[in-house]
Design a protein that fits this description.
The chain has four helices and three strands; from the N terminus they run αβαβαβα. Helix 2 links the parallel strand 1 and strand 2.
Length: 104
């Protein structure tokens, strides 16, 4: 996925790229910061962060529910790191405010 995002940016540098992460699956803060760095290093402009919710009983269970304050803080960290737009909250999904982000 990183290669696809990077290649897209190289071929069409004016195209905005976006990636999203679902939190609550056991990830650590250090892992998240590394992923943020990897995404930025591959030209990603926009980032969404949301809470993973187990869709059915036969899917991975939620490891933990991330507090809204932590989403706010991670969103601010991502902005300071260099993402142009960040949507971060428990109910945020990859398409969250996609039009608004693209037009900003």
């Amino acid at each position: 996925t990183l290669k696809l995002l990077s290649d897209t940016k190289k071929i069409m540098p004016e195209t905005k790229t976006k990636s999203g992460l679902m939190l609550g699956l056991g990830e650590t803060r250090d892992e998240l910061l590394q992923v943020f760095t990897d995404l930025l290093n591959n030209g990603v402009d926009f980032l969404t962060l949301g809470q993973y919710l187990q869709p059915t009983l036969n899917k991975l269970p939620v490891d933990r529910y991330v507090h809204p304050d932590e989403f706010d803080e991670l969103g601010e960290v991502a902005r300071r790191m260099g993402f142009q737009q960040v949507a971060s909250g428990p109910l945020v999904r990859s398409s969250y405010h996609a039009r608004e982000m693209a037009e900003a």
